[in-house]
Amino acid sequence: MTETLHTRSRRTALGGLILQLVVFAGVLVLGPLTNSLAIAHLAWYLFGGVPLWFVALLVFRQHELAALEALDLEELRREKQASGGGEALFGAAGGTGSGFRVAAARLKWMQRWLIPVFGLLSALYLGGMGAFLWRHAVVGGFEITSSAWPAPVRVPIGMVMLAIAMFGTILYSRYVSGMARVTEWQLLRGCGSYMLGNGLVVTALLVCLGVFQYAGVATWEHVVAYVVPVLMLVLFLETAVNFVLDIYRPRAAGVEPRACFDSRLLGLFAEPGGIAHSIAEAMNYQFGFQVSQTWFYQLLQRAFVPLAATGALALWLLTGVVIVQPYEHVVVERFGRQLNATAPLGPGLHFKWPYPFEAARAYNTGQLHQLHVSFKQIDAEPDESKALASVQLWTDEQHLGQEHFDFLVCPTRQVGAALEPTTQPPGEIEDEGAARESPVHLMRLDAVLQYRIQAHHLDRFTQTMVDPDDTLRAAAWEEVSRFMASTTADYLLGEELGGIGEQLRQRIAARVQDLGLEVVYVGITNVHPEKTVAEAYRQVVTAEQEKVTAIRGALVAEDEALAKVAGEAKAARVLAAAVE
Q1: Beta-carbon contacts of residue 63 (< 8 Å; ≥ 6 apart)
Q2: What residues does 407 pair with on adjacent strands?
Q3: What's the CA gap between 283 and 542, in Å, rounded?
Q4: 333 forms bridges with which residues in the sheet?
Q5: Can you tell me whether residue 363 is helix, strand or coil?
Q6: Mind listing the pLDDT tens digit for each residue in 476-490?
Q7: Predicted pLDDT at 423
Q8: What pLDDT does residue 135 have?
Q9: Which residue of 38, 266, 391, 465 is 20 to 30 Å from 260, comparing CA positions?
Q10: DSSP 111
Q11: Cα–Cα distance between 267 and 280 in angstroms, integer?
């Protein structure tokens, strides 16, 4: 068979199609095998390259047929000229045998319609599948830092297969991108760029699995699971924009049109010649003339390095400027050693050595910080928007969107011993009968603690503990738990409730006085029994209300009976007294 210029490009497109299908099938099987959502998403990103290689194979095959057709027509023309009968067909002006060039006409049709249609179909696939994968990750509750995310299994097998896919896709894409430098083969550029994008994502996922295998950190693999659909959506937008621009882009005769699926973003990394050459070529093609030959572009190209260096130097020097907000104080560190912890920088404009020689650590010392001691999750914050949505009842499972923590309270009812922790062993409690009959052993309490960082003690705050805020939270929980265990339900629900907050504030402040923190306020916003006890309370209140209702009903019935005897109840009572 006679080989033409496009025989090699056809074989390359066929090899790319086979490689893309093999890698897609392998990764598709690898997803369930390793229980990795990122690998499952990667498989569908790989499938997006199949239609690109397929249309490239069709077009280059048609190129090959058109070239063979041209050779046959040229040979026929020579034979006719030798016999003296070919001038009528081939020698007249415009008589180039166009009526016989069926393959060439089909090639023009493919370039005009088939390539844009496949590009549009590829864009729709990327957009639809990218949106589906993103929705699947979000609706499925797969948060990046969630501990419920399924951990990958059989990671070594997955790493080996991904390494094979990485080398195959990257090496073949580089080979294809080199071939695409030939003008007649530039359709391969879009295919090679997409495959290189596949290889880069495979490489990133391989690194993430390596981190999980050797460090036990799965967060990076979770990030890749979200990055893949985002990348597909970005490529969808770019391809759709290119499809619309191709409709209005000027076309020069004899110039091979650039496919809309030929990504300019991926081409920055895939095309040989560097990013600057890629940008220049993209601009030339986009505007229809040599933008890279204009005086402004040439000036910018010559001055780009000095301008970039000057901008980078200016940005680096700006790291030496410290702007302190009115509610902040700043501690300057030089190679990790604090310089002014006892006299921090106050609000205003200050200067220091640029990074990395010195670093500025800002601390919010002017505003109050707040934490809650109430809920089962120790660092939970209430949803204030639900406070006005409905009435908060003692019998509710949750308050303000959070589930309460049940504090243990003392079951004794000793007068005067409520404020101090008991020193009696659990087995020597006085009045054991009262302890056994006590209806409340668990209570729920909402404690709000407000504090601020002391500006004149930032050295304590930054040097005493790794995380003073967590230390304060732990101390607050411990003091509240101790206080609840040393008091009774009667005291908590009595008139002394207003003084509990101040007692807790003093106790917590004494615990954290060496941390550079000032406990400003502790408030008790709600105290109530545990849910089952609260239901019993409600039954008691209901019974009392029913008792009052029954008494009032009896009085009404009495008045009605007396009125029937004497016309009115008062007269009936007078007659009854007279009879007696």
Answers
A1: 4, 5, 6, 9, 10, 107, 184
A2: 443
A3: 81
A4: 338, 359
A5: strand
A6: 888 888 888 888 777
A7: 41
A8: 83
A9: 38
A10: I
A11: 12
How far is residue 168's CA from residue 69's CA, in Å, rounded to a whole number? 35
What type of residue sits at position 60?
A: F
Structure confidence at residue 93 (pLDDT): 41
pLDDT of residue 143: 58
At 80 the pLDDT is 76
Q: What is the dihedral of CA 430, 433, 437, 438, to 10 degrees?
A: -10
Q: Which residues contact 138 (CB under 8 A, 6 or more apart)?
A: none
What's the burial of 16, exposed, middle or buried (CB within 10 Å: 0-12/13-18/19+)? buried
**What's the token pair of residue 342?**
């006892």
Residue 531 token pair: 């849910």
Supply 386's token pair.
């639900």
246 and 260 in contact (C-beta within 8 Å)? yes
Residue 369 main-chain phi, psi, to 5 deg: -105, 150
CB 331 within 8 A of CB 364: no
Q: Model pTM greater than 0.85?
A: no
At residue 24, the pLDDT reads 92
Q: What is the CA radius of gyration of the chain?
A: 41
Residue 87 carries which side chain, given as an amino acid letter?
A: E
HSE (side-chain half, CA atoms, 13 Å) at 565: 13
What CA–CA distance (Å, rounded) separates 213 from 418?
A: 55
Residues of the chain with pLDDT under 50: 88, 90-96, 272-274, 414-432, 434-435
285's tokens: 């093609």
**Can you tell me the distance from the alpha carbon of 196 to that of 544, in angstroms, rounded to the nearest whole number?**
79
What local confidence, expressed as pLDDT, does residue 300 receive? 65
**Orientation of helix 7-34 relative to helix 187-215, angle to 10°:** 30
Give the number of other CB atoms < 10 A from CB of residue 195. Answer: 29
Own/partner pairs, 315-318, CB within 8 angstroms, 24+ separation: 316/354, 316/355, 317/354
Given this model, what pLDDT does residue 399 score? 67
Residue bearing tokens 């550029």: 189
| Amino acid present at 193 | S
| Distance from the first to the final alpha carbon of the chain | 139
DSSP structural state of residue 377: S
**What type of residue sits at position 493?**
L
